[in-house]
Sequence to fold (726 residues):
Amino acid sequence: MEEGGGKPAGLTRDRIKVSKVSDLISRFEENSNAESKRDGSALKQTSKASNCSPNYRVNQRTDISKLQEKFSSSSSAAAATQDAKTPAANGVVAQMEQDKETEEETHQSVRTETAELVNGDLERADEVDDHSPSHHTVRTAAESQAEQEDSEATEETVQKSEEGNSEHKETNEQKLFKIASELLHTEKAYVARLNLLDQVFCAKMMEEASKGTFPVDVVKNIFSNITSIHAFHSQFLLPALEKRMGEWASTPRIGDILQKLTPFLKMYAEYVKNFDKAMELLKQWTDRSPQFKAVIQEIQSQEICGNLTLQHHMLEPVQRVPRYEMLLKDYLKKLPQDDPDRTDAEKSLEIIATAATHSNSAIRKSENLKKLMEIYEMLGEEEDIVHPSNEFIKEGHILKLAARNTSAMERYLFLFNNMLLYCVPKFSLGGPKYTVRTRIGIDGMKVLETSNEDYPHTFQVSGKERTLELQASSEQDKAGWIKAFRETIEIFQQKNESFKNALKDVEEVSKAELGKRAPRWIRDNEVTMCMKCREPFNAITRRRHHCRACGYVVCWKCSDNKAQLEYDNNKVNKVCKDCYSILTGEGVTEGKRKGILEIEAAQITDSSIMCGFLQHSEKGGKLWQKVWCVIPEKECLVLYLYGAPQDVKALCTIPLLGYCVEDADAPASFRLSQSKSVHNFAAESEELKQRWLKVIRLAVMGEMPARPETNGGENSSAQEANPDDT
Fold:
């Protein structure tokens, strides 16, 4: 009975075991079919993974884990070691997921393992620690180890896929955070630049100006409202951005901050409008005052400046507003349409875009001024070309055909909107340098194509001052030059025509009514040059003024007269020189030394004993000015001082006879003194100083000085050969 009773019990256990195993087999076959379908298309698998919710993926992993645990408990009930915890069947499932090409073998392996379980091989595998393992048992253990590694790799792949899908969902949020972070990072750097301008450059120069070295107003006009701009960014905008980025997790938005603070960006309008004037003042006083120049150079040499000039740092506020516009546009592209921050961000963009329009215009002007500064340096700082009325057009090497022989000489051209500089290259170790031979005005200029059998690609430039026959390097280069010349001439003529039309449209006051009836004033923006002398206007040296008698827009030189006007109750008003002559019946006098000063610099430079640039200061020597000095052959005892080599009138003249000449304390400098008249001069080198002194010491004694020998120095203009050969 005990044996008979034992059999049904054992049989029952075997049947239970077989039923469990059969159930597991069917479940594994279903899973393997599903996995095979998923493995068949990588694209479908990715799409499905991306569309699944995180909860679904978590539940899926949970089901797989439960299934592994179930089968593990049934297949390794007697296992005592850690290696026996992963069942063979579970390893086979993992192998099926990894190896698509051996799907049939995988199914066969599942069946084999299942059969072994049914036949009781599972019990033998459980006893592997107590008995000598069979060949099949050893193979199963090795496969189990490999399959366990495959299972872990599969789980890691699934995990990475889920992380990738999560990153895909957060892409826009990450990009918005990145833009906001970039705004904060650039704002910190910008505030540091503003601090350099306000607390270092401006403060140091104001301190020096308070000593009387140079005017305080000059510093104020250069830096405009930089202090207000610095205060706004350092005390309001930057702290607000830092606070918001610190609480980005709960408040991911920047539009509300910008919408609140961007109206203050209107203060940039003043800085941008003043930028041209600031650049010109900076250049003017750098040339004029050695102390002014020394202060700037001292600060520029410091590490905080990063080897950049003051002009580069001053350009930063002009460029900042367009950068806000670019960042905000990028922010709005990534911002969803229904985001609560969108309305504020769009309002901010409208305000910033308006401010950026003025800045972009100023940037274009500043880039032109930067190019003019580069050319100014290449010309040895001897040509007064740096002012807003000059616009750079084109430059390049060219060959000049000589009139007297068949040679072609290398030359260099700088084309501007109102003139052409015809230059000669000169040797220099510090980059390209040129000497100006001729300045030809665009007014009246003509350009013609020419044909020359010996010299191809030639054309002719004819102006009032000179005619040049030039040879380009290729037909394309020639076409480029001709096109640039013709377009420049056309634009110049159009502006000149508008100037003439403005004159025609004026309802002129008759001579009989002049001063008795108020005139119609010509608007400032209707003219670009003085309506009397036709010199172009600029922000500093030639500003616009109105004649109160005729209404014309004139420069200060042409309006430096006053007369009583009947229509204004006989009050004294500023009038132009023509109206002054009519109203008073007197001719306009220019002073006692008018005849001497009215000599053009170019006329006496060509036949001079000595000419060149020197720094000049009278008496105390606090204010220095760079002047063009000439001692003409016909008046060898007189030193003429001009503002530039092409000026039509001298600043002053010094009759050298009777003056005392002595060395000054500063290097390469000397002094001329007579009674209360004291003139200080400084040359660029000691050698140049000695050349000047050699001529001047003879002149002060009444002797006729001879032209000194030069080595291509300052007196190059006086050494020129026949103009046709240059």
